[in-house]
Write a structure and sequence with these properties.
Blueprint (H helix, E strand, L loop, with lengths): L2 H27 L3 H13 L5 H13 L3 H14 L4 H13 L3 H14 L4 H13 L3 H14 L4 H14 L2 H14 L4 H13 L3 H12 L5 H17 L3 H23 L8 H14 L18 E6 L6 H9 L4 E5 L5 H7 L14 H19 L6 E5 L7 H7 L4 E6 L2 H10 L6 H6 L2 H21 L3 E6 H6 L1 H12 L10 H8 L6 H5 L13 H4 L3 H11 L4
Parallel strand pairs: 1-3, 1-4, 2-3, 4-5
């Protein structure tokens, strides 16, 4: 090729870069992200490899659920522009959607420290903090985003959604109206209003809002949430067949969106398989030798309680009952055992010989646990600490080895109501949530975890006490007295104030509405969906009989 032709090609390429960049910037000035991304995609295909085009095309990949593809493009952009806060913020957003929440938060913290005026990063940080159940910090992050950009409708929408979940109707409506005045199709604001409609038993009003929203171009996660709430609204109107069909649509959408990152594969077992691997090890191994009392750890609680069972079994209610007493600190669904997980359990569920663990490893993991608890829940020394996580039944072998002095509260609720409720909920993306997106898999997952819990009770030195949800709501005081005595707490009338406790603490699980309204007997709801549940009833039958719910 002659120098003249090479020079001509270089000049032509430069003109293409300038032209593409100008068109993209024009679209961005009009806040037309979709057009800007489409132009960037065409430009990238033609060889316009710049941080801006890579970032915008990564956004397209992200919107399509291709998080790995988005991440790769953003890595290229960062290589071309090291330290670029726009690119780093985009990587944080992808990490959040991949479920890598703590990594995402650490990266976004770096971004806002480097560029405190980056409103989009503050917004994304709020999303991430919500995923990590740090509600107060999320509210602060959304507020900071709005201080920088008062027209950021998603931040108002998220504040409205949080307020609605907390039962703050006035605050929710005010924030929702602000969001909708900026963007009439803002999803989170519509969700907040729909939640309040459903709580007020105005199913028809919620249906109208949500059906209109579903006609718009919703992002995949927002579509799942809209369909889930629509199912709840139809349920309020006693349109059970329509409601169940809508829940199926919601879960089908969830599976489609997250199949690439959550569906079981060669190196990623299903959540049920993970549980079954642990069960097989407990079954094969010798019964664990009761551990001697472990040396005290600085900052540890005087009394230690693990509250577990299964999602939607009543753990949030019991947590708030116990948290109503003086000198009780309760922590809602945080991964307090994360440090132990990294050492004692592999991604496939395989574990070392826990009975043969070196005493120094045990001491180190205990210390890390209490350090994490203090970071998440504050000072617990000299108090009763309640570690509530429905899935900690999976970790009973680790709990038995590290915390032989702990008390274990196990929630029991009619398995049919539990499985139906799990299928109806829009959980944050996780391997367990992926299991709940299929009704039969939800039932088999429940069966697997119940098998593990019962086996651990037989073979491990655990101090356990069952709390039945139906007896808790129908015979409150005797049930709570027995539970408190097992834990080592004296009776107090403050236990009755659990609804006010929930209001002041804030409930971040899907049980927020029920706990705020006081004792709520949700038993027997499965009967309205008996036809739809019929295929899975044989899977649940052994547990119905064992737990005394057969009828």
């Amino acid at each position: 090729m002659s120098n003249r032709s090479a020079k001509g090609k270089s000049t032509g390429q430069q003109e293409l870069v300038r032209s593409t960049r100008a068109k993209i910037e024009q679209a961005l000035a009009l806040n037309d992200i979709a057009t800007a991304a489409a132009l960037a995609e065409s430009g990238l295909a033609a060889g316009v490899v710049e941080p801006l085009t890579l970032n915008l095309v990564a956004w397209l990949r992200e919107e399509r659920g291709d998080y790995a593809g988005a991440h790769e493009l953003l890595r290229q952009a960062l290589h071309l522009s090291p330290g670029d806060v726009m690119v780093l913020g985009a990587i944080g957003a992808v990490m959040r959607k991949e479920g890598r929440w703590e990594e995402a938060l650490a990266l976004l913290d770096r971004v806002v420290a480097a560029e405190p005026r980056h409103s989009a990063a503050w917004l994304e940080r709020g999303y991430t903090l919500e995923a990590l159940r740090s509600e107060a910090a999320a509210i602060d992050s959304y507020s900071r985003a709005l201080a920088l950009d008062p027209n950021l409708a998603p931040a108002y929408g998220k504040l409205a959604d949080i307020a609605a979940r907390k039962g703050d109707r006035q605050g929710a409506r005010m924030q929702a109206e602000r969001a909708l005045a900026i963007d009439a199709g803002e999803p989170a604001a519509t969700f907040a209003l729909a939640v309040m409609d459903i709580e007020a038993r105005n199913g028809a009003g919620a249906i109208a809002r949500l059906e209109a929203l579903l006609e718009t171009g919703l992002k995949p996660d927002d579509r799942t949430r809209a369909l889930t709430l629509l199912g709840d609204a139809l349920d309020k109107e006693d349109r059970c067949d329509d409601a169940f069909e809508t829940y199926c649509r919601a879960q089908s959408n969830f599976r489609r969106v997250y199949s690439a990152v959550l569906a079981p594969g060669y190196e990623r077992p299903s959540h049920r398989s993970f549980i079954e691997t642990i069960t097989a090890q407990v079954e094969r191994g010798p019964a664990m030798t009761p551990a001697l009392s472990s040396p005290p750890i600085a900052g540890a609680a005087a009394r230690h309680v693990f509250l577990l069972g299964y999602p939607r079994s009543g753990t949030t209610l019991v947590e708030n009952i116990l948290a109503s007493a003086a000198d009780v600190v309760a922590l809602e669904e945080h991964d307090t055992l994360a440090d132990a997980d990294g050492v004692l359990i592999a991604n496939d569920g395989s574990m070392p010989d826990l009975d043969g663990l070196d005493a120094s490893i045990v001491a180190e993991l205990r210390a890390k646990y209490w350090a994490r608890v203090q970071k998440l829940g504050g000072a617990v020394r000299g108090k009763t600490f309640v570690d509530m996580n429905p899935f900690n039944g999976i970790k009973l072998p680790i709990i038995a080895r590290l915390f032989p002095e702990a008390r274990i509260l196990i929630m029991r609720r009619d398995p049919r109501d539990v499985v139906l409720s799990c299928y109806r909920i829009n959980f944050a993306p996780s391997p367990a949530a992926y299991a709940f997106s299929d009704l039969e898999e939800t039932a088999r997952h429940y069966d697997a975890l119940m098998r593990l819990i019962e086996l651990c009770r037989e073979r491990l030195p655990l101090a356990c006490h069952e709390v039945r949800y139906d007896r808790l709501v129908s015979d409150f005081e005797p049930t709570v007295r027995a539970m408190a005595a097992f834990v080592g707490l004296p009776w107090t009338d403050d236990f009755h104030a659990f609804d006010r406790t929930a209001q002041s603490r804030g409930v971040r699980t899907a049980s927020a509405t029920q706990v705020r309204r006081g004792l709520y007997n949700g038993g027997g709801r499965w009967r309205r969906y008996e036809v739809q549940l019929h295929p899975i009833l044989p899977i649940l039958a052994p547990w119905l009989e064992r737990f005394g719910f057969s009828d």
